[in-house]
């Protein structure tokens, strides 16, 4: 493949051609010089755009996002009652599936009876913005043979219920939705994803690659449910799956340490304030949020996985959860240093609230801070109410970077749209509307944001992986708004054009 007329150096206007052989960059012409296309060589015109390493979404839920693209958005709901009104006003018939509400500051609590009163006998499932709450109608509860007092499920229960609801779509249809969604990712400049769907992901993606060719590289996580099966099969983090052309790799073990901010279940050192919310009574006693797994069990899971060469990626949002997770990584690191375990890297997923004394531990332990910059701007109002006045730093990307932590960006789609242009803009400008930047001291420089959005890659050179994106303009000169909408001229994934505008 020959990628013509691109700016390899974002700071210069000189154009070069980039030749790709296989899945590597093999040649870059001197600025102003042209390379001659070889016979039958695919030529893509970069139209003077800037070529950068392809974007990597380091945290998303592919099946959930593929399904969410077909669900009714209810992010505008200001209360449980308002959400029900939105469902009725939509005029949807048959099964109703909705997504995106934020209920942390609602004055009322969702309940199955509210859905039954407004939509009698209708099968309804409503998933929260953060995927940590699923609200079902009595009709759907009956179909699933579940008896539940409120129909509202949170955290681990929500994940299990969502999986059961999604299974009703059917494997073939879901695979079609997912592969179609990868084409959307390529159109946004994404060349690789780390999928944290609650599923036997390596098996699911092996099936998808066998039936077609998804438009992105995939690292497929596993969960404790499938850990022993994964280890018995000898799958190690980073291993390439057979017959996928190098496009599918084994990813890390995903562990949930706490809940989320919007459900008030993120586990914190300090209690949540009484903000007049309508949290369910079952959670009122959990003033500090919920720790879903304790230190001994974390150590057991991380070390068990590490013993088989599988890295751990642990969801931790509240500051206490982050402390407990870092403590566990420290314990496992000592086992590794003693030779009792092979070295396998680790990740903290989200790291939204971190105590000052824990900041240096990310770099010291070699633990990646996998963060989602779009959460910082969409959660700002809730964080200002629920996390105000604390010693801990919320969404502290610059502080984490300054303390040596390796940042990797993701979207957590469908929690946020999987658009790396917006993620970079949110990290650099710390606002996505007309309001001033939220905690502007936590903004990161553009080069840091681009590196975190491309899996740690910097620049395009001969020998680089041919996972590239061509943007119409250099991100370094764009405003907040323009960066979010800069056209993606082309995306090259594993040496082939996966998107050309």
From TrEMBL:
Gene3D superfamilies: 3.10.310.70, Metal-dependent hydrolases (3.20.20.140)
Amidohydrolase domain ranges (all copies): 43-497
Domain of life: Bacteria
InterPro entries found in the cross-reference section: Amidohydro_3, Metal-dep_hydrolase_composite, Metal_Hydrolase
Protein name: Amidohydrolase YtcJ
Species per Swiss-Prot/TrEMBL record: Rhodococcoides corynebacterioides
Source species taxonomy: Bacteria, Bacillati, Actinomycetota, Actinomycetes, Mycobacteriales
């Amino acid at each position: 493949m020959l990628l013509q007329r691109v700016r390899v150096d974002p700071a210069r206007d000189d154009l070069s051609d980039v030749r790709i052989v296989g899945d590597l960059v093999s040649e870059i012409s001197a600025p102003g010089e042209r390379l001659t296309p070889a016979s039958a060589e695919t030529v893509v015109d970069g139209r003077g755009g800037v070529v950068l390493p392809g974007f990597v979404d380091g945290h998303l839920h592919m099946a959930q996002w593929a399904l969410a693209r077909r669900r009714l958005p209810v992010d505008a709901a200001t209360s449980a009652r308002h959400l029900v009104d939105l469902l009725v006003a939509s005029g949807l018939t048959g099964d109703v599936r909705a997504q995106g509400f934020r209920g942390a500051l609602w004055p009322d609590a969702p309940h199955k009876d509210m859905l039954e009163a407004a939509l009698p006998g209708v099968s309804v499932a409503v998933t929260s913005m953060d995927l940590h709450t699923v609200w079902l109608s009595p009709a759907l509860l009956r179909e699933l043979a579940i008896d539940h007092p409120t129909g509202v499920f949170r955290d681990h229960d929500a994940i299990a219920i969502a999986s059961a609801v999604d299974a009703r779509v059917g494997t073939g249809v879901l695979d079609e939705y997912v592969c179609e969604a990868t084409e959307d990712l390529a159109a946004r400049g994404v060349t690789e994803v780390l999928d944290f769907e609650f599923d036997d992901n390596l098996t699911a993606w092996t099936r998808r690659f066998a039936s077609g060719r998804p438009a992105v590289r995939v690292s497929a996580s596993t969960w404790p449910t499938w850990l022993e099966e994964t280890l018995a099969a000898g799958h190690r983090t980073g291993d390439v799956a057979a017959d996928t052309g190098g496009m599918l790799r084994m990813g890390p073990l995903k562990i949930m340490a706490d809940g989320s901010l919007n459900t008030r279940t993120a586990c914190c050192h300090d209690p949540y304030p009484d903000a007049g919310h309508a949290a369910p009574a079952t959670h009122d006693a959990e003033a500090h949020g919920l720790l879903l797994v304790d230190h001994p069990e974390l150590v057991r899971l991380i070390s068990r996985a590490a013993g088989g060469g599988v890295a751990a990626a642990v969801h931790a949002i509240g500051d206490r959860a982050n402390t407990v997770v870092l403590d566990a990584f420290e314990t496992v690191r000592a086992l590794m240093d003693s030779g009792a375990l092979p070295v396998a890297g680790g990740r903290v997923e989200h790291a939204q609230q971190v105590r000052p004394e824990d900041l240096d531990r990310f770099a010291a332990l070699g633990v990646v801070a996998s963060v989602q910059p779009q959460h910082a701007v969409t959660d700002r109002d809730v964080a200002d109410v629920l996390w105000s006045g604390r010693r801990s730093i919320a969404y502290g990307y610059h502080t984490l970077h300054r303390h040596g932590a390796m940042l990797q960006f993701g979207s957590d789609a469908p929690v946020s749209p999987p658009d790396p242009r917006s993620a970079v803009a949110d990290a650099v400008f710390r606002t996505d509307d007309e309001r001033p930047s939220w905690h502007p001291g936590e903004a990161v420089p553009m080069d840091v944001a681009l590196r975190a959005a491309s899996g740690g890659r910097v620049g395009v050179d001969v020998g680089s992986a041919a996972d590239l994106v061509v943007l119409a303009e250099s991100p370094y000169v764009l405003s907040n708004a323009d960066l979010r909408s800069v056209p993606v001229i082309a995306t090259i994934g594993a040496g082939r054009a996966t998107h050309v505008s």
